[in-house]
Amino acid sequence: MIIRGRAPLRVSFGGGGTDVEPYCVEHGGAIIGSTINKYAYCSILPKENDQITVHSLDFDMTVKYNAKENYVYDGKLDLVKAALNALDINQGCEVYLQCDAPPGSGLGTSSTVMVSLLMAMAKWKGVTMDAYEMADLAYHVEREVLGISGGYQDQYAATFGGFNFIEFHGKNDVVVNPLRIKKDIIHELQYNLLLCYTGNIHVSANIISDQVNNYKKKETDAVAAMTEVKALAYAMKDELLKGNLNSFGKLLDYGWNSKKRMSNKITNPKIDELYEEAVKAGALGGKLLGAGGGGYLLMYCPYNVKHKVAERMEKAGGQLADWNFELRGAQAWTMDSNRWDYQDIKVQIPEGRFDFKL
């Protein structure tokens, strides 16, 4: 038997940073975003021994453990070890991990990998959890057990999937509001958006730490910026539901300018140049995805200038990505491993079935 877990990566439109403690505990936070058709995958092949072998296909890394040992979090595939502990996996297996985007891309990769791991392991163990329980567990393992800096949004976005307005009312008090957006609006929004890789990998922990410190020190501009970012998330939700997409695009610009005031580490000259080139070519607004410092830029461009924006961003060193929205959340399924034995594949073609005559 092969058990697979898959979770979608996400793009956030507004509210980023307000889902991070202590701001969300003291004031409440709000995020608007959607998942996209780029994924984190986990495959598990159970074994009849105590050996656990983990293969990271993206990093060409293999690490081996014993199912009976006490895991040490030493920076080598700690997400896997923490997930094994969380679901009390005490049987040997092979685990394969693969993600469609690198760490530091701003698409929530580490949290999405965690969700795919837990989905596959829960399926294997026969553990039933609803979406809230799964997202809560993923947050607990990543943020509290491993101490990885970040907010709440990524685990919930990956688990629930689709367009959501997520509110954070306090510690472990999260409400996911699925947005019922007309299909025509979703199609038009996707057509008018560009996803551009900046070429920089960010270190989100450093940026989040700086943002949190600015808030704790009550730096007036940083605190005001967080309040603005939260308010703009509500405004984006309203404009998106109404289908006022050009207004939505302009709100992205307002949100980006507010977010940059939360920490001086959020942007850099390369990112600013890409953004400015896009606006000069006709983009109404956009934002850097994730904590900042690198990763992907999301730009809203009216359809008649989108090609010009794309050309200017590529000339400035940006790398455009092919993508679309994904409305489904995390999933897990099983397959008979014998059907995927590639060592001795034999296919018999019925005689005459493909005898075409021109």
From TrEMBL:
It holds the Pfam family GHMP_kinases_N. The keyword Transferase applies. Residues 236-316 form the GHMP kinase C-terminal domain. SUPFAM superfamilies: GHMP Kinase, C-terminal domain, Ribosomal protein S5 domain 2-like. The keyword Kinase applies. Residues 79-162 form the GHMP kinase N-terminal domain. GO terms for molecular function: kinase activity. It comes from the Bacteria. Keywords: ATP-binding, Kinase, Nucleotide-binding, Transferase. PANTHER family: L-FUCOSE KINASE (PTHR32463). Belongs to the GHMP kinase family. This is GHMP kinase. It comes from Blautia ammoniilytica.
